[in-house]
Amino acid sequence: MNIRRATINDIPLIVNMLADDKLGRERENPQSPLLKAYTRAFRNIDEDENQELMLIENEKNEILGTFQLTFIQYLTYQGGIRAQIEAVRIRKDQRRAGLGEKMIEWAIARAKHKGAHVLQLTTDKQRPEALHFYTKLGFKPSHEGMKMHLI
């Protein structure tokens, strides 16, 4: 297994993974050709030193999963850095093989390397299996998250 940064050529596979469940189908559009908004978003992520869009692949260089790691600088915690992991997805035919755990372990090590004092994530309440997965890996439901959709 190898974890590497995504390239622009990986976007269609990533979008397909993001759209591969009930919630993802409601908000993603994996049509071909892909919407230009995905390419713009990828370029913004790729050019930002605080953003890392990552993939896990097998020995045949087949993409099996993805996640995005963001480093947020702020004043609290004496000018600390917070790492945020989002969009964790494993290809449907590869789930329950330990890949998600490998990705999270990599993200933890990367966050420590970058000097982050905390790694946080959110998971939709409609994904109870994800909540169980993250709890099993040591994440604690310490805060109540809130959102306001602007569009």
Describe it:
This protein has helices at 11-18, 22-27, 36-47, 76-79, 99-113, 128-136; strands at 2-5, 51-57, 63-73, 81-90, 118-121. The protein starts with a strand and ends in a 15-residue tail after the last helix. The protein has 151 residues and is of the alpha+beta class. The protein has a five-stranded mixed β-sheet, with helices on both faces. The chain is built from six helices and five strands, in the order βαααββαβαβα. The mean pLDDT is 93. It has one domain (2-136): Aminopeptidase (3-Layer(aba) Sandwich), CATH 3.40.630.
Total domain count: 1
Chain-averaged pLDDT: 93
Q: Tell me about the biggest sheet?
A: 5 strands, mixed
Q: Assign the structural class, choosing from mainly alpha, mainly beta, alpha/beta, alpha+beta, or little secondary structure.
A: alpha+beta
Helical stretch tally? 6
Name the shape in a single word: globular
Rg, alpha carbons:
16 Å
Element-level helix/strand string: EHHHEEHEHEH
CATH class descriptor name: Alpha Beta
